[in-house]
Write a structure and sequence with these properties.
The mean pLDDT is about 95. This protein is α/β, with parallel strands linked by helices and about 325 residues long. α3 crosses α4, α4 packs across α5 and α7 crosses α8. It has 11 helices and 12 strands. About 45% of the residues are buried.
Length: about 325
Amino acid sequence: MQYRKLGSLQVSALGLGCMGMSDFYAGGTEAESIETIHHALELGVNFLDTADMYGRGANEELVGRALKGKRDGVVLATKFGFLRGSDGAITGIDGRPAYVRQACVASLKRLGVDTIDLYYQHRVDPNTPIEDTVGAMAELVREGKVRHIGLSEAAPSTIRRAHKVHPITALQTEYSLWSREPENELLATVRELGIGFVAYSPLGRGFLTGQIKSPEDLDASDYRRNAPRFLGGNFQKNLDLVVAVAEMAEEKRCTPAQLALAWVLAQGSDVVPIPGTKRPRYIAENIGALALTLTPADLQRLNDTFPHGAAAGERYGESALKAVNR
């Protein structure tokens, strides 16, 4: 396994996103999900990503069960901030200091650990100054409940304000061939400040794997059924882009997923993708991206195929889009 630095925190060059094991994506069982986590650990992946909103706490509990007796050496990341109703609907974002502490204590209990290695604010609360939220997170660091703090989908100006209160170790934001917004200003900002970058959805919510050929390939309950890039004419336009990637992957004798991950990895040694899966067989495939060398010509070809803004449709629906980059 190769390793990379997020600020002062060393993690495996690929992490494992655990969200889909409990929420948003259909299929899979808890036993298979735990087997996936164990297989990832066996192959050297030590960076696990969850959040209190995934399954309304169920995902943290699952990760906690998977880590029983295996906590040593694992870099465990979770997030707080989203509020969800009993029906699963997102009802708001809370970054108030009292809530930060409450959420952390609840996450520690669900995870069954004494300390969270990397604690993110999942989305910035527009009604609470970032200085107040990060100040409360810094208190958790001083108390030993948290080792490092991070932000997710925060804007450059917000990151700068937060970093003045307490060092931010990592920024987590969507980044892939079809979501290249971080190249506008975010990557330059975090690099200037010495903050690592964690790329979530590096496989474009599975689209870049080439496994999704039609919206009907997705279960009726799968949230991607209503995601803009999977709807109507957008789906076919995006599929045409993925076909081009698949053709290049065949030439490189790798899978489309490996090619897409290798592209993210090539964007800098401070970038750590966290592809999600709930099936053990995909862990080794994803790790195979680390052995794939992309030449300058390869990178140029991918950039030409997937230039900034090439994907059809927004990456989120209107309400969710308002919560990013702020």
